[in-house]
Structure formats: C-alpha cells, structure tokens
C-alpha cells in the first residue's frame, strides 16, 4: 500500500494564530507529491487585474516616432522596458520574450537622450529617476565623464493577483524574504503585499523605498500601496539608517524593504526582526544556496560558521571533523525563490538551511499557476538547490 502523501511529505509549518483559513481543495495525485489548489480572490476566473500602468506618461519622454510606434504596438500591455543607447537602435523588450524588438532603423542621438533626460528630471545617487505620480523607473548609463549615454525606461505597473501565491503565509505574521533575478517581479509583489497588509490585514506598514520603486516617484505615494506609509531614502547608502529610523520613530508592525544588498542592511534587518517587527524584503539571487554562500547576506538566513567536532561526534555523524553549521536563528523564517513570475519555491528557512548544510534535501513547497491562473501548491522532497 502506497504511503499517505500528507504523512510522507507534510511541509513542516506551525499552525498560524488565525481563525480564518484560505479555501483549499485537495486532489488525488501520485504518492510523491501532495497538492492543494487555492481559489484566487482578486478577479473572476482567477486572472490578474492591472489597476494602472500610466504607460502614456512613460511614452511622453520618448522621441515622437518611438512613441507613435509603441502606441500602435499590439503587445503594448506586455511592454517591459525601452532601451535608448547612444549610437544604437532603440529597442523594446516584452514580457515572456528573451530578445528585443528594434523600434526603428536609425540610431539614438545625443540630442534625443538629452531631451529624454530633461523630461525625466534629476537622477539620484543610484542613477535612477522616476516620473512623478507613476511607478515607472528610468535608469541611466553614464560615460567616464559623467555624461548620460544610455537610458533603461522600465514600465511600472500596479497589479493585483500576485499576493494569492503567499496569502496563506501572511497569516503566520512571520518575516518573508523573496529571492529572484532582476525582472522576475519582486517589486510588484512587494507593492501588492504592502497594500494587502495595510488595507486588508489592518497592519501599520512602513515601506523603506530606496529608489521610489515601490511607492512611485514624487512626495505623494502611488495609490497602489494602499494605506501603507512610505519613507524615502536620500541616498542608497543610507537605506539601513532609514530602516532603523522607521522602527524607532513610527512604530510599524510591518517593514517592507526592497533589494537588501549590504552587510549594514542585513544587520538592520536582524535588529528590526529582534524587535518583533514583521519584515518583507527582497534580495538578488535565484536560490537559497546563493544566500548561504554570500558572506554579506548570509546573516539573513542565520549565518554560517565552521565547527570542529570531536572524534566521537564526527564518527557518530559519519562526517568530517570540520563542518558548516548555522550560527543563529534566521532573520526571515520564510524564504521564497521566485524562479519565474508564476513559479515560486517556498522554504521554511531554518530547516532548509540546516538540511542543506548537512548534505540533505529539504522539504519545499512549489507554488505555481495553472492554465486558469489558479494557484497550485505542491510539496516536494527532491530540492537540491539547482532544481526540482
């Protein structure tokens, strides 16, 4: 008789302290994977709802011919970014496509770059700027003399529906770290989580918005973050200070921070977590193993140290005398690898780190969407850090 999926592959999570649970319909599958299907709560039929993309505002900064081409582009709703590089043909990139599409045969001139730069406004210390009242991001490439020689005009959209992938985890009131490569949708998810926690969960939410990507450019944050408050950061190097200031001055229950990338920011995250504040953060990296091996960010998952065992202990464990161990409890009890926009791998951080350091395969949850955009949660015991 085949073993029960629930008993064999139960994802070891504590029972959250809440009275309402998401609706789950269970289906019979092969014995090696337990499956749950969660009904989306945003749009009828389980689709996504784009609240606002303000695309016309972004097109206004482009040369006139490019603006006209994109207005008539049938895939305009899938536009990801427009690339303007000096002496090269302008290029549009779309969601789901690895390559780009040239928008004309002639190259971008210095005059066109200067006009686009004037329409955008001043760039910050991270060479990023925005368009006031929108979620768009304009990033500059500069020459050695400081002259702008390239612009990446990234479309920012307010989208409802992504939170369905983690709505059940939000009920645990524990911190969550999202990993993913650039462009996989981390900031979009942060924006929607901020709105849901502030408006639906009635939490005091503060966003530490380093480049104004989550709350948009300008002093008044975009409506997409709901009732969450936003603190702007004067310089990227000051992000860790603003994180601590948010906790000390504004008494948040939740702090949301995008692109954790320095040791000071990792230490600030630990300090905030130790004060009982829920953290929602992102970091670059595709796998948990990337964070374990990163000396700057490994503190987010508890840190790693070398331990020397005695002879008897080493024989009992059947291992070498020098082994790697986790130093402390993780700052983020949950870690989510955003492999694709609709394919996420969820870890219970403490258990996954310990098992990976001991050369074992941890239990994980694979969260994805089916053809009807409904969320499917599968539990697997074959994670090896490189794939499932």
Automatic annotation (TrEMBL):
Q: Which CDD domains does the protein's record reference?
A: AAA (cd00009)
Where would one find the signal peptide in this protein? none
Task: Cite the AAA+ ATPase domain residue spans from the record.
Answer: 172-329
Which Pfam families does its entry note?
Spore_III_AA (PF19568)
Q: Name one GO molecular function term.
A: ATP binding
Supply the alphabetized keyword list.
ATP-binding, Nucleotide-binding
Q: Which domain of life is it from?
A: Eukaryota
Recorded hits in InterPro entries, A to Z, give:
AAA+_ATPase (IPR003593), P-loop_NTPase (IPR027417), Spore_III_AA_AAA+_ATPase (IPR045735)
- Record bears the keyword Nucleotide-binding: yes
> What PANTHER family does its record include?
EXPRESSED PROTEIN, KINASE-RELATED
**Protein name per the record:** AAA+ ATPase domain-containing protein
Which source organism does the UniProt entry give?
A: Brachypodium distachyon (Purple false brome)
The lineage, from the top, is:
Eukaryota, Viridiplantae, Streptophyta, Embryophyta, Tracheophyta
């Amino acid at each position: 008789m085949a073993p029960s999926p629930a008993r064999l592959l139960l994802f070891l999570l504590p029972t959250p302290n809440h009275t309402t649970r998401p609706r789950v319909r269970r289906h019979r599958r092969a014995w090696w994977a337990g499956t749950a299907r969660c009904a989306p709560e945003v749009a009828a039929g389980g689709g996504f709802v784009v609240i606002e993309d303000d695309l016309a505002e972004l097109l206004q900064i482009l040369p006139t011919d490019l603006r006209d081409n994109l207005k008539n582009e049938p895939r305009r709703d899938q536009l990801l970014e427009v690339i303007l590089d000096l002496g090269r043909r302008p290029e549009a990139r779309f969601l789901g496509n690895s390559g780009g599409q040239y928008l004309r045969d002639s190259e971008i001139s210095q005059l066109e770059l200067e006009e686009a730069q004037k329409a955008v406004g001043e760039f910050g210390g991270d060479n990023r700027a925005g368009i006031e009242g929108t979620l768009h991001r304009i990033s500059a490439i500069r020459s050695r003399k400081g002259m702008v020689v390239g612009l990446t005009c990234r479309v920012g959209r307010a989208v409802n529906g992504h939170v369905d992938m983690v709505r059940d985890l939000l009920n645990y009131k524990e911190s969550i770290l999202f990993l993913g490569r650039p462009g996989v949708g981390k900031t979009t998810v942060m924006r929607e989580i901020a709105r849901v926690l502030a408006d639906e969960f009635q939490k005091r939410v503060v966003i530490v918005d380093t480049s104004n990507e989550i709350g948009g450019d300008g002093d008044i944050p975009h409506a997409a973050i709901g009732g969450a408050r936003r603190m702007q950061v004067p310089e990227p190097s000051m992000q860790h200070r603003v994180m601590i200031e948010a906790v000390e001055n504004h008494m948040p229950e939740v702090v949301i921070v995008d692109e954790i990338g320095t040791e000071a920011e990792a230490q600030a995250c630990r300090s905030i977590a130790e004060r009982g504040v829920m953290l929602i953060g992102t970091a670059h990296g595709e796998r948990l193993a990337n964070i374990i091996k990163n000396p700057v960010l490994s503190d987010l998952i508890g840190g790693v140290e070398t331990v020397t065992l005695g002879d008897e202990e080493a024989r009992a464990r059947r291992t070498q005398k020098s082994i790697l161990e986790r130093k402390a409890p993780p700052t983020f009890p949950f870690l989510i690898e955003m492999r694709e926009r609709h394919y996420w791998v969820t870890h219970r951080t403490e258990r996954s780190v310990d098992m990976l350091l001991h050369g074992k395969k941890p239990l994980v949850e694979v969260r994805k969407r089916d053809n009807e955009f409904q969320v499917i949660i599968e539990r697997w015991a074959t994670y090896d850090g490189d794939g499932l």
